[in-house]
Structures are given as C-alpha cells and as structure tokens.
C-alpha cells in the first residue's frame, strides 16, 4: 500500500467538482471508510481493489452532472484518426465509445464504425447518430455480430476503469484483423496528474489503476502484440495552473490547507512556459499517454 484516502474525503472532493452522487451510485463504498492504493513490488504498477469499480448509476450520474464527461474530441482521437488514415484502415471498433465522439470523427473519415458501451444514455446518443453500438461486454460481442474482425480497435481512457485491464487488452487483440492495430490511451500517472492527486476522477469508483509508459509496454508483451508507437500528450501551461488550483481548492475544502493568495509565481511560471514553447521540447507530461500495437502475422495465423 502506498497511499490511501477516506471515502468521506472523496465525497467532498467530488462535491468540489460539482458532482453529488445518490446512495445507489455510492453503494460500492457501503461499509468502507478508506480506499487504499497498492503498489506491485515486482513491476511497480499501481492499482486499487477491483471490487470498487463504479456501477451503472455512478456513470449515469457523472454523465448527467458533467456535460463534457464524454469528449467530442481530444488529442487521442485526432492521433488515432491520422494513424488510421496513414495505415488505410477501413473498419473501427471503439470499446467504451461513450456518446460517440471518436466514432463521429471516424465516420467522417470514411471508416465503418462500431462501438461497445454499457451506459444506456450514451448508447442512445450514439445510435441516433448512425453508429452500430452494442450494449455488451467485449467477451459477449460475437453473439451480437458473429466472427467479424476489425482493422483498428480503440480503447480510450477505459483500461483504468476496469477490474482486469490485462484481460480486456487481450480480448481486444482477439478481435483484430490479421493486419489490424490496437490503439490505447490512459491517464499519465507520471504527468500533470501528479499536481492534482486528490482529483476524485483518479480514485475509485472511477479509476482502478494508475498507468506509466512502462505499463503500456508490459501489457503488449503479455498480450503478444507488437508495439508500434508509444508516447504522451503535450503538457499545456493551462493544465499546470488549472490542476494546481483545483488541488488547492479540494485541500482547503478538506481543511488540509489554508486559503492561499493567488500565486504570482505560478502565473509567471505558466506564462513563461507558454511563451518559451517548452511544451514542444520537454518530456510529454500531459494528461494522457498512448500506445499503438500491431497484430503480428504469427499471432493472427496461429
């Protein structure tokens, strides 16, 4: 165990983010007063008790209270579209497609779009836009569509939500066409999130694991996939300022820090960071890291 937080503090932190949950959405914490984050002594991967995964009510209430919970676009979406066009992809399966932001971009690019999503509200939005979206887990998809395979499978900001990310990654690989690709994004544990570790999005019931580039490499080895490309989002100056201020607001609400005057030094640092173009030269420490994998011929023919 490397860290812990009280469930009461998570409730306060969510409230500071403008979200209040019903007892049904918060039921995963019945009888639990503290959440622990664990560190694997062998590989360094950090995770939480998988039994603390959010339920359907939790995600429905998040969608209702955070209008931008499912993004219309993001660096991961745009990067995957460029990759798909470059590799002449024709069919796309987006696992955890939300309200269809990435599928919209993929459809406009000329790809056949399919999605999997468990949030009923998000599914309805997707279907109204003309996407083929199924309310099932990946392991059950074949009963819905048969033995179809896809040229590109995407998993954007999903692995950190599931109790067994290695299994989901492996199941996704089984749906790849012989020359297919798998695209992954996850929040960057070693990036800007370190400035805002009390962000309730990073803790159960929302997230169940914290990720590094090393972990994206390791999961490729376990899934017998070839790593094609790996990297991270740029760190933007506005993110630094926003995350520091949100962290302070939550710590104040938890009575763990006195209200500070707005930091002139922080504002000057952010201004200098923006004007100097540091984001183009420093390590990619933005919100997310990504990886593209390829289905090896030997695997697809076995």
Labels describing this entry:
disordered C terminus; alpha/beta; 11 strands; 4-stranded antiparallel β-sheet; 302 residues; 7-stranded mixed β-sheet; single chain
Write up this protein:
This protein has eleven helices and eleven strands. By secondary structure, it is an alpha/beta fold. It has one domain. The strands form two sheets. Strands 6-5-4-7-8-11-10 form a seven-stranded mixed β-sheet, with helices on both faces. Strands 1-2-3-9 form a four-stranded antiparallel β-sheet. The longest helix has 17 residues, at 237-253.
Number of domains: 1
- Fraction of residues in H or I helices: 25-40%
Strand content: 15-25%
Distance between the termini: 40 Å
What is the topology?
Layout: E1 3-6, H1 7-16, E2 34-39, E3 46-47, H2 56-65, H3 75-86, E4 91-95, H4 101-108, E5 112-116, H5 120-128, E6 132-134, H6 142-145, E7 150-156, H7 165-173, E8 176-187, E9 209-210, H8 213-222, E10 226-232, H9 237-253, H10 264-276, E11 288-294, H11 297-300
Parallel strand pairs: 4-5, 4-7, 5-6, 7-8
Antiparallel strand pairs: 1-2, 2-3, 3-9, 8-11, 10-11
Summarize the structure.
This protein is an alpha/beta fold and 302 residues long.
């Amino acid at each position: 165990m490397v860290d812990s937080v009280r469930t009461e503090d998570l409730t306060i932190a969510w409230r500071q983010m403008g979200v209040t949950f019903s007892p049904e959405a918060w039921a995963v914490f019945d009888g639990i007063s503290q959440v622990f984050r664990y560190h694997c002594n062998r590989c360094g991967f950090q995770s939480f008790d998988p039994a603390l995964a959010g339920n359907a009510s939790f995600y429905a209430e998040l969608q209702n209270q955070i209008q931008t919970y499912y993004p219309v676009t993001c660096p991961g979406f745009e990067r995957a579209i460029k990759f798909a066009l470059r590799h002449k992809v024709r069919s796309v399966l987006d696992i955890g497609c939300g309200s269809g932001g990435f599928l919209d971009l993929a459809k406009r690019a000329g790809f056949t779009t399919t999605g999997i999503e468990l949030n009923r509200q998000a599914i309805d939005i997707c279907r109204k836009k003309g996407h083929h979206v199924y309310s099932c887990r990946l392991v059950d998809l074949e009963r819905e569509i048969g033995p179809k395979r896809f040229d590109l499978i995407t998993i954007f900001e999903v692995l950190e939500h599931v109790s067994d990310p290695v299994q989901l990654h492996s199941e996704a690989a089984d749906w790849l066409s012989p020359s297919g690709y798998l695209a992954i994004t996850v929040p960057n544990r070693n990036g800007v999130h370190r400035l805002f570790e009390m962000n309730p999005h990073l803790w159960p019931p929302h997230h169940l694991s914290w990720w590094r580039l090393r972990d994206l490499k390791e999961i490729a080895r376990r899934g017998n996939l070839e790593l094609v490309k790996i990297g991270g989002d740029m760190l933007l100056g506005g993110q630094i300022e926003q995350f520091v201020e949100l962290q302070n607001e939550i710590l104040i609400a938890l009575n763990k820090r006195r209200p500070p005057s707005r930091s002139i030094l922080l504002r000057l640092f952010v201004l200098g960071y923006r004007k100097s173009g540091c984001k183009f030269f420093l390590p990619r420490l933005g919100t997310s890291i990504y990886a593209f994998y390829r289905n090896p011929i030997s695997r697809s023919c076995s």
